[in-house]
Amino acid sequence: TPDSILQQDVEHHAGFHIEDLASCTLIRHVFKGTSTFVLTLITNAPSNSLIMEKLQGHSGTSEDKD
Prior knowledge:
Layout: H1 2-8, E1 16-20, E2 25-29, H2 50-55
Antiparallel strand pairs: 1-2
């Protein structure tokens, strides 16, 4: 259940406060007022594929000029 996951992983939240609000789970960063986007990505793409390299902030091509 989500409650047991929250209780088991309290030490592994990477600086986020996680609150169970009955109908949803709220993830709040400890630095109030900072822009933070939390994402969980589940994929079967190889970690060295072009898209995964880009998502990790690695630029593998000369086309990347963003």
